[in-house]
Amino acid sequence: MATLTLYFRFPLSLRMAEEMLAARGIVVSHEAIRQWALKFGQEFANQIRRRLPRTGDKWHLDEVVIKIAGVKHWLWRAVDQTGMVLDVLVQSRRDKRAAKRLLHKLLKRQCRAPRVMVTDKLPSYGAAKREVMPGVEHRQHKGLNNRAENSHQPTRRRERQMKRFKSARQAQRFLSAHDQIANLFHLRRDHVTATEHRAARARAFEMWADISGVATAA
Questions:
Q1: What percent of the chain has pLDDT over 70?
Q2: Structural domain includes residue 195
Q3: Positions of the region Disordered (predicted)?
């Protein structure tokens, strides 16, 4: 759907997406866009996850605080060495138990342990790793984990557009779908020519068109 292409691809609010479509002569309400995103977003994300190349073997883990209905929650996110998002988990705690939940979810989803796990100096990571993945190398240093910390920036932009998440369930559902769709368009610009970048972008749009059923422009 062209509507969902705009909504998932760019940090737009529902009403901004509605107005952009109206400018193109497409009349659709913001509530309809929200319902379509709920209905199709995770399905699209699951297909993208299956079709993208295998993720890297170096996991960068980080957690960031988010306010939901005035209550502090923690968004835990894992990315690989290229910045591809592996998974996210919204939790109310920032302790060993929460870190273990994230590691178990990652192992279930990735079907393998990483070669290296990189985190900040939060003790919960080390305690959880010793129980869940004792043989994995663990590097704890704030300066090594910029890749994971930078991965939170799109979420912050989304928070502002959505005027914060309404519930932990909504945040988990939205980010689980959005991060995987964003992976499809995670196109590196370093060490590639402009021609190579455009070709990679064209392939990404072709895959999105195939998954979403939206024809690409001629």
A1: 96
A2: yes
A3: 135-166
| Structural domain boundaries enclosing 35 | 2-51+187-212
- The stretches of the chain forming alpha helices (DSSP H) are 2-9, 14-23, 30-51, 96-110, 123-132, 146-150, 153-162, 168-184, 194-212
pLDDT digits (tens, 9 = 90+) for 185-206: 887 777 788 899 899 999 998 9
Is the model more confident about 160 or about 123? 123
pLDDT score of 75:
93
Q: Give me the mean pLDDT over the 12-28 stretch.
A: 87
Tell me, what CATH number does 64's domain have? 3.30.420.10
Among the listed residues 91, 95, 97, the one whose alpha carbon sits nearest the alpha carbon of residue 172: 91
Q: Which two tokens stand for residue 205?
A: 């749009």
* Residues 6+ away with beta carbon under 8 Å from 72: 65, 66, 92
Determine the distance from the C-alpha atom of residue 127 to the mean position of all C-alpha atoms in its chain, rounded to a whole number: 25
Asked whether residue 216 carries a pLDDT value surpassing 60, the answer given is no
Does a structural domain hold residue 217? no
Answer for the pair 102, 61: CB distance below 8 angstroms, yes or no: yes
CA distance 55 to 38: 26
A 10 A CB-CB count for 138 gives: 16
Cα distance between residue 198 and residue 101, in whole Å: 39
CA 83 vs CA 19, 24, 28, 64, 214: distances in Å: 32, 34, 34, 16, 27
Give the number of other CB atoms < 10 A from CB of residue 214. Answer: 15
| Whole-number Cα distances in Å, 206 to 102, 109, 173, 210, 211 | 32, 25, 25, 6, 9
